[in-house]
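Priority: medium. Attachment 1 of 2:
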């Protein structure tokens, strides 16, 4: 069986924790203190999600891009 690839969005919160979410798997997210631990945890979260949702059909990601907007007060 070949593996699946997932796009993961990584952000950092105000406390410095890293937060990962998987847009193609609604509700699949995790957090960690560093990026190495986050990598392990997001892989675990994806595996758990897929085990729990065995009937889930994977739709291909339709990543467009990331854009930062600055708004003046």
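Attachment 2 of 2:
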């Amino acid at each position: 069986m070949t593996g699946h690839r997932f796009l993961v969005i990584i952000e950092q919160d105000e406390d410095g924790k890293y937060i990962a979410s998987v847009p193609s798997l609604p509700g699949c997210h995790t957090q960690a203190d560093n990026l190495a631990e986050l990598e392990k945890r997001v892989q675990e979260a994806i595996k758990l999600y897929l085990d729990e949702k065995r009937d889930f059909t994977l739709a291909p990601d339709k990543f467009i891009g990331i854009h930062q907007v600055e708004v003046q007060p």
